[in-house]
Amino acid sequence: MTSTVPALGTLTAEGSALQAVLLDMDGTLVDTEGFWWDVETEVFASLGHTLDDAWRHIVVGGPMTRSAGFLIEATGADIGLDELTVRLNDAFESRIDHALPLMPGAARLLAELAEHDIPTALVSASHRRIIDRVLPVLGPEYFALSVAGDEVPRTKPHPDPYLAAAAGLGADPARCAVVEDTVTGVTAAEAAGCQVVAVPSVGPITPAVRRTVVPSLDVVDLPFLRGLMTDLR
């Protein structure tokens, strides 16, 4: 799955202001946020360092460069950022080769969006190599495009990934619904001007203007997402 597609024009769902749905990957569609922490813990253990569990909330949901850089600084590990990034991605790929569980409600939601021809994008802080390993499990046919963290000038918590996805779908960011699981991702989506559905995976997320917090994807369906756009009709 490539990261860009030709502009499709403004794609409006009939009878709704909803133009597109933009979905985070780790912790939102696939149950992998814990995988990343396990991998980071294992890699740093091999370097002779123990990670403080309190750091998990700092590194979750962010770009590899930020989380890996923080852990190098916090532990004082003798390893460069580039080498650590490769080791973490290698270990993560090995982990998902053995198991890659979907989050509850993910498969049903993707199928529903496809059934109603809702333009959908996968927007992740993970690198392209990781996205391309996960897409076959999610179903690449469900996504018009995907945006990886190493394909934009600035990744989450900056708005660039969501702005790129909206532009690729020819959609107004204000008429896009974003589904995220971390504060980092929510921050990126809100900075892009999107409506946000937060499904917290690790740390708490509080409701706010243009932000709805739900316990799981089981309660998110197309009528729910269209309802977020009521004020934009």
UniProtKB/TrEMBL annotation:
Family matches, as Pfam families: Hydrolase
Domain of life: Bacteria
PANTHER family in the cross-refs: 2-DEOXYGLUCOSE-6-PHOSPHATE PHOSPHATASE 2, PSEUDOURIDINE-5'-PHOSPHATASE
The protein's name: HAD family phosphatase
